[in-house]
Write a structure and sequence with these properties.
Blueprint: H1 11-14, H2 24-31, E1 38-39, H3 51-59, H4 73-87, E2 97-100, H5 103-113, E3 121-124, H6 131-139, E4 142-145, E5 159-163, H7 175-188, E6 191-195, H8 213-216, E7 223-228, E8 241-245, H9 247-260, H10 266-277, H11 280-302, E9 306-308, E10 315-319, H12 324-333, E11 336-337, E12 339-340, E13 351-355, H13 360-371
Parallel strand pairs: 1-11, 3-4, 3-5, 5-6, 6-7
Antiparallel strand pairs: 2-8, 7-8, 9-10, 10-13, 12-13
Helix pairs in contact: 2-12, 3-10, 4-10, 5-6, 11-13
Bound molecules: pyridoxal-5'-phosphate (PLP).
């Protein structure tokens, strides 16, 4: 007789709910606005991919052979040069950089790929984009959401995530703070991974990489920084990102990823080189976002909102000191879709996150509705 076999729990059940599903009824309400919805609930770029980058992709379109997982030396060198030129990062070699297929896949799979699992602890910021938690749950590890290292007591995590500038709050961690976290992690042998996706989206302050010599004390040991070109260069559709830092950790990731075929396509690598070498398009995009941010911010303040943090990133972290779902509903009545703060953590319950990545025309529509 065949013994009944317990059906294993589907992996998807380990993962958090996909939060955007909860917004559906508000999206319907916002879409019913006679002048159409202004969707500020997600931070997806809408301006064209820079011509110089499109050109590089076209020129590299003939790509019959397999690229290698480690990436072209020119791609890795472009990452190193950009980090040095823009962010003062020194001491990175070609063995300290690995291109990845958008930073989300790296963030979601990092714990699994580094052998973090049951019984291990992963720490993510109190308010954070969901993928750190997804990665920990996929690995079967425990996850704690906190900004306070002392709250961890005697526990030693395997992995600690930072995200500065932050999604959703736009908060920037100053170099002193980053240095303290580096020291804390080093003393305990904790891997520190800093998601620096918004490092160039600064409006009221400067942002620092955890790999800056004044932050990491001139050594990349035990540290990784994750960078994405999605926002800087309107490249979300190309999936261009990289991870940089401790060569021992990068080497281990490479050893795992080459077995899995996680290879950035060759044409995209050439596009990434063009994007990293060109500063002009990034400056133009920065100006566009700055103008949209100022308009939306003023309109929200005029409509009685308070804006907290938001000194960097592509979001305004706004509140009317009421439950975030009430604010989502109030905005949806005006045809504006925002993300409720609870998507990012319990302490976001009185805030909404508004992305200013919409077109000039849609931002103007939102402003008219908020001020009308
Ligand atoms: C904090 C943060 N990290 C990483 C990403 C992922 O970017 P990508 O996968 O496009 O590189 C996002 C996207 O919105 C983000 O907000």
């Amino acid at each position: 007789m065949v013994e009944p076999v317990d059906t294993p729990e589907p992996v998807s059940r380990r993962l958090p709910d996909f939060p955007w599903d909860h917004l559906t009824s508000y999206a319907e309400r916002a879409r019913a606005h006679p002048d159409g919805v202004v969707d500020l609930s997600i931070g997806t770029p809408v301006d064209p991919t820079p011509e110089i980058v499109q050109q590089a992709l076209r020129e590299a379109a003939d790509a019959p052979g397999y690229p290698v997982t480690i990436g072209l030396p020119e791609t890795r060198q472009a990452c190193i040069d950009w980090l040095e030129r823009y962010h003062g990062v020194t001491g990175l070699g070609l063995d300290g950089v690995l291109p990845v297929i958008g930073s989300k896949e790296l963030i979601a799979s990092l714990a699994v790929h580094l052998g973090i699992g049951a019984g291990d602890l992963v720490v993510r910021p109190a308010l954070a984009y969901p993928t750190y938690e997804v990665g920990a749950r996929l690995a079967g590890a425990r996850i704690v959401a906190t900004d306070s290292l002392t709250s961890l007591g005697p526990e030693t995590p395997r992995l600690l995530w930072l995200n500065s500038p932050s999604n959703p709050t736009g908060r920037v961690l100053p170099p002193d703070h980053l240095r303290k976290v580096v020291d804390w992690c080093r003393e305990r042998g904790v891997l520190l991974v800093s998601d620096e996706c918004y490092i160039e989206c600064n409006w009221e302050t400067a942002s620092y990489s955890v790999l800056h010599p004044n932050v990491c004390r001139g050594s990349h040991e035990g540290i990784l920084a994750v960078h994405s070109l999605s926002k800087r260069s309107n490249l979300a559709g190309y999936r261009c990102a990289f991870v940089a830092g401790d060569p021992a950790v990068v080497g281990e990731l490479l050893a795992v990823r080459r077995n899995l075929g996680l290879i950035m396509p060759g044409p995209q690598q050439h596009a990434m080189i063009a994007a990293l070498r060109d500063d002009r398009h990034a400056e133009e995009q920065h100006e566009r976002y700055e103008a949209r941010r100022a308009l939306l911010r003023d309109a929200l303040v005029g409509a009685g909102f308070r804006i907290d943090h938001s000194e960097a990133s592509l979001y305004l972290w706004a509140t009317r000191d009421e439950d975030c779902w009430q604010t989502v509903a109030w905005l949806a009545e005006r045809g504006i879709l925002a993300a409720p703060g609870t998507f990012y953590g319990a302490s976001g319950s009185k805030h909404v996150r508004l992305a200013f990545t919409a077109t000039d025309e849609r931002i103007a529509a939102a402003v008219a509705r908020l001020t009308g």
